Amino acid sequence: MNLVLQQSNIDKTQSSIKITGSKSETNRLLLLQALYPNIKLENISKSDDSDAMQMALAFNHQSSTINQIDIHHAGTAMRFLTAFFAIQENKEVVLTGSSRMKERPIQILVEALKQLGAEITYEENDGYPPIRIKGKKLIKNRVTLAANVSSQYISALLLIAPKLDNGLELTLQGEITSVPYIKMTLALLNEIGVETSFKKNTITVCHAELVSASKLTIESDWSSASYFYSIVALSGIGTEIKLSSYKENSLQGDSALTEIYKDFGVETTFQENSILLRKTNNCQLSIVNYQLNNSPDIAQTIAVTCFGLGIGCHLTGLHTLKIKETDRLEALKIELSKLGAIVSVTNDSLTIEKSNNLNSNISIATYQDHRMAMAFAPLALKTSIIINEAEVVSKSFPSFWEDLKNIGFQISEV
């Protein structure tokens, strides 16, 4: 499905949008719920990734000893489920996914689990899915990882740690990246009653055979909120959008949006369980610099916002974007260049030169990446664009296009 987004103006009066629960929190809590069934969850993410996670976890209740589980494009599910099934005694599964998933490395996590005694083999190419996992009791409790690896590898280990007889002591070597996602995992463990500590580069999670019954409400996704920050930034002064449900003391690293978008004239006000975004002034900067180690998922949104505002940007700390649904740095370079931007990328950075060039009626390729589709959509406030394979947004935000229509975007299928 390709969508044409005609150059649009959104209603400056306040619009309200309810955003689905955080995919990051949901997938962590779904795994913990599978380990501790007395946990109850509210505001579960309606994303494809979380649907894949729930589907895969349901296999664990089936009587057959061997199952093949296809998690399609769901990278978080692949990492978390690798750890989960490694500790399911007398169960054997083959985890596979889309053609892109088979290109995304899993070896770092597999080797860490093998340090603990896990039995995992590769079905096709060494280091990549599909993988065969023979679940067993893991006795060892110490593992070492490079600190700059994807936080999902680290979180996968931490999430199964309370079910290990001796808990887990995880040592990270070097400078740690994506700290907020690690802290999110530990905070959710604490919330269900698991004892943890994070001192210097050592994380300890204690064994917990049982946890007390609890009902947890999942905060809405800050990554999804980023597209509305971009919309407000690219709109006129006085534009307001209200989003729910958000917490001022969020566990999500992408809540850094509240500070970053001040540079673009967007003020955030917390109102009970909602946030009000308001355009208060026009950006006076010619270039911005952000270190996004702790929030790489909002890099695409920020890059497009800057280009739409005609200002330059230099974004760093983006090395994990190379192994996402696509190589997001190269994808951004290609698509922004088609629109008239002058872009350069390195292994962990992206730079856009200040420019007022903005070509019209350009088709944006999405590379099976939901964030490419959503990050570029706000540009329809400046020019008409076409989003190819627009249905990819269902991975994290199924109602995205309908929500845009409701606030005034002119969208039609082509």
Automatic annotation (TrEMBL):
One of its GO terms (molecular function) is 3-phosphoshikimate 1-carboxyvinyltransferase activity. It is found in: Cytoplasm. Keywords: Amino-acid biosynthesis, Aromatic amino acid biosynthesis, Cytoplasm, Transferase. 3-phosphoshikimate binds at residues 23-24, 28, 150-152, 178, 297, 324. The keyword Amino-acid biosynthesis applies. Its EC number is 2.5.1.19. Signal peptide: none annotated. Its main location: cytoplasm. Residues 11-404 form the Enolpyruvate transferase domain. The active site is at residue 297. It catalyses: 3-phosphoshikimate + phosphoenolpyruvate = 5-O-(1-carboxyvinyl)-3-phosphoshikimate + phosphate. PROSITE patterns: EPSP_SYNTHASE_2. Pathway: Metabolic intermediate biosynthesis; chorismate biosynthesis; chorismate from D-erythrose 4-phosphate and phosphoenolpyruvate: step 6/7. Phosphoenolpyruvate binds at residues 23, 75, 104, 152, 328, 371, 395. It is an enzyme of class 2 (transferase). Catalyzes the transfer of the enolpyruvyl moiety of phosphoenolpyruvate (PEP) to the 5-hydroxyl of shikimate-3-phosphate (S3P) to produce enolpyruvyl shikimate-3-phosphate and inorganic phosphate. Monomer. Belongs to the EPSP synthase family. NCBIfam families: aroA. This is 3-phosphoshikimate 1-carboxyvinyltransferase. The lineage of its organism: Bacteria, Pseudomonadati, Bacteroidota, Flavobacteriia, Flavobacteriales. The gene is aroA.
